Amino acid sequence: MAQLIWTSTLFTTNARESAHANINRNGCNLSLLAAITKAKEFDKLQWSSAYTYKKANVPESYRDKSPLQRTIKSVKKTITSESINIEEQERILRIENKKLAIQKNKNDELEKEIML
User: Fold this and answer.
1) Phi-psi region for residue 10, left (φ > 0), alpha (ψ -120 to 50) or beta?
2) How far apart are CA 81 and CA 87, in angstroms?
3) Which of 40, 55, 69, 115 has its CB 3.0 to 4.6 Å from that of 64, i.e. a possible disulfide?
4) How many domains does the chain have?
């Protein structure tokens, strides 16, 4: 495989799976010569589309996958994760404070009973 083709393809199986479905739209159960001709036409169309998209600066998806955007998303996930941990810790502290208040009340009542 040429280096240009290798670096141009995605590193997921999505492109391969969709290519398999797309090529079968052009015909099934063809003779060898017809299949080769159809595959050549299909490849030409796919490369033409890819070249046009690249030339027109059309992204491969609507999501922004730039390094900056990935860094921003990572930081947001970290902040969200930390805030969830902080919220969970605050919830646990509130519960512990309630338990301590209940225990203090019980201790105060016991002290009163002992004093009597």
Assistant:
1) beta
2) 10
3) 69
4) 2
Do 53 and 79 belong to one domain? no
> Are 105 and 55 in the same domain?
no
pLDDT given at position 102: 92
Flag whether pLDDT at 11 surpasses 70.
no
Domain containing residue 52: 1-62
Q: Are residues 42 and 83 in the same domain?
A: no
| Banded model confidence at residue 57, pLDDT cuts 50, 70, 90 | confident
Residue 63: name the closest of 52, 48, 73, 78 by CA.
73
Does one domain contain both 58 and 1? yes
pTM as predicted: 0.37
What's the CA gap between 96 and 5, in Å, rounded? 61
